[in-house]
Structures are given as C-alpha cells and as structure tokens.
Design a protein that fits this description.
With 130 residues, the chain is mainly alpha-helical. It has helices spanning 20-35, 43-58, 63-67, 73-76, 79-82, 87-99, 106-118. The chain is globular, with a radius of gyration of 15 Å.
Length: 130
C-alpha cells in the first residue's frame, strides 16, 4: 500500500507568472509532469511541447545539429509517445518542429510551452493511487 501526498498549485492565468524565475520553475514542473506521464496529452501536442523544450535548451537549430542526434527522445517525451514511433521518426519530427521555432528566446519558448500545456484536458488535475 502506497500513499502519496503532494501539494501543487496550478496557474489559472498566465499573467500571474510575472517573474522569469517563477515562469522557469513552472515550466520545469510541467515539462517533468509531461515526461513522466502525470499529464497526458495527444502525441502531436507532446511533439510540439518537446520541440519547444529543445528550443529552450539548445536555442535555434544550427545546420550541424540537424545531422547529428543532439537529444534523446526519452529525455523529453513520455514513454507512451516514444513507444508509438521509432527513434529515427522522433528525431526527424522533432528536428523539423524545432527548426520552426527559430528566433524564440528562452523566455518566449518557455511561455509558449506553458501556454500549450495549460490548454491540455488533464492540466490542473491530480490523480492519486488509492
């Protein structure tokens, strides 16, 4: 028998994330929740979110990065998504999506990530084992 207690505060208005540190910590929380499957989302949305995480982590996609594997899909996507595609498919899709975010700053990519994550159906819901 396992009982988990957690206290989490979900933002209802993104305008309340005034400070860059607050936005960053909230972004990290959502990214971790999505990666570990605590918030479920459709595969296409998960890929969009992962590409924004790549933009935040690496900045604009450089030509030398596209030819090499500069990320591991399992580091940014949940197991449910990685099981649906091959590593090569994920690398190609995420590289393409990452290139579409050229010019976004760290703050802009984090804000866009949070915006998309807050639109998910399971955002703000917590499930506990009984």
């Amino acid at each position: 028998f396992t009982l988990y207690f957690r206290v989490k505060y979900f933002v209802s208005r993104l305008s309340s994330l005034v400070h860059s540190q607050t936005l960053h910590l909230y972004y990290l929380h959502l990214k971790d929740s999505l990666r570990h499957g605590r918030i479920c989302c459709p595969d296409e949305r998960a890929l969009q979110l992962a590409s924004l995480a790549l933009q935040d982590q690496f900045g604009d996609l450089r030509s030398d990065m596209g030819r090499q594997k500069y990320f591991l899909p399992e580091d940014i996507l949940s197991g449910m998504v990685t099981k649906s595609y091959s590593n090569e498919e994920l690398h190609n899709k995420l590289t393409s999506l990452h290139s579409s975010h050229a010019g976004l700053s760290h703050r802009q990519s984090q804000m866009k990530f949070v915006e998309l994550a807050t639109e998910l159906q399971e955002y703000g819901l917590l499930f506990y084992r009984a």
